[in-house]
TrEMBL record:
Family, per entry: Belongs to the CinA family.
PANTHER family: NICOTINAMIDE-NUCLEOTIDE AMIDOHYDROLASE PNCC, NMN AMIDOHYDROLASE-LIKE PROTEIN YFAY
InterPro entries in the cross-refs: CinA, CinA-like_C, CinA_C, CinA_KH, Competence-induced_CinA, MoaB/Mog-like_dom_sf, MoaB/Mog_dom
Protein name, as recorded: Putative competence-damage inducible protein
Domain MoaB/Mog: 4-170
Gene: cinA
SMART domains cross-referenced by the UniProt entry: MoCF_biosynth
Species of the source: Anaerosalibacter bizertensis
Lineage, broadest ranks: Bacteria, Bacillati, Bacillota, Tissierellia, Tissierellales
Amino acid sequence: MKSEIISVGSELLLGNTVNTNASFLSRKLAELGIDVFYHTVVGDNVYRLKTITKIALDRSDLIIYTGGLGPTEDDLTKEVVSETLGVDLELDNVHLAKIKKYFEKRNMKMTDNNIKQAYIIKDSKVLNNDIGTAPGVFFNWKDKKIILLPGPPTEMKTMFNNYTAPLLKQDSIIKSKTIRTMGIGESSLEELIKDLVIEQSNPTIATYAKQGQVEIQVTGKGKNEKEIDLIIDPLVKEIDKRLGEYIYSYNNESIEEVFFKQLKKNHMTVAFCESCTGGLVSSRFTAIPGASQVFERGIVTYTNNSKIEELNVKESTLKTYGAVSEETAKEMSIGLLNKTNVDMALSITGIAGPTGGTKDKPVGLVYIGLASKDKSYVIKNIFTGSRQDIQNKAANKVFVEGRKYLLEINN
């Protein structure tokens, strides 16, 4: 079954509202074994909505609309769809009574334009709105299924989960396994699994680059999860064989969660000292429930004076090499290790931009230091992107290096 999602609303095109409805519906349809072929966003315009409806009817078996079911003049979805299909709208007195009750319960005056919401496409199934006033519509037209859902995300999600999904259940389902990697670019990764991508049918392989890491999604279709696992698992094992050193998670875990679990497994503690990330590393790590079991402290030493006072970085080091240098990163991590009673101290210093870079020290230059009771070293990195991108990529690398060290001492 080819499905299409049409999101209606000029606010989506203007960028005033993020279209979370489409991503939610895509995930839910995938769980039901329904392939989504098209996403379309269209403004509150009769001609354009009618045009995209005709296109969708020509290419898709299931069409889901979100938005445009409200009481105002620019809420046009029902009217345009019914006109395009050549099917009348009719007043549903049951839902009109529900709408009246909704307003009475809240001691609000119901304006006449709200009656518009009680009109539905003739011979369609009405989908209850447990939160708002606009009912949804499920309509079989020729060999097509057409669904109209409200735009507000809470209303749409509730209506889909409670009333729409049960009507769409099929004999097959889709299941995905996500493999998360770091330390390799998307193009290099794809070269290593190129033949697997070319040969794909069921399961399929897709790669996505984000914030200095690459995710591989392996998706299979079958009658049940056990059947899907039988076709997915051999492919996942083959990918692991080729990319093992770069893979950090198979369970949708973040890199900081994986690092946290490895620390617990090793019965070790950690502390962070940050400059260019301004506390981001500690913030992300302490967002993990139970982080206090392994996390001793986090220090932000943004200025040279704070590095000297808090971490015993030598003034001569800062004058000779600068705050962003291998030497400073090393003294930061060693200073933190000496100041605390942790097993591992990680430091980070760099230039997040957008200004402050030079020819010798460009924006994106970040040094990460690691110190333990038996060794210390520094990793030089060059990250690209916005200030926020560089900070997030740098934080990711801190967790990567920490985990890498833990795995090495286990071998």
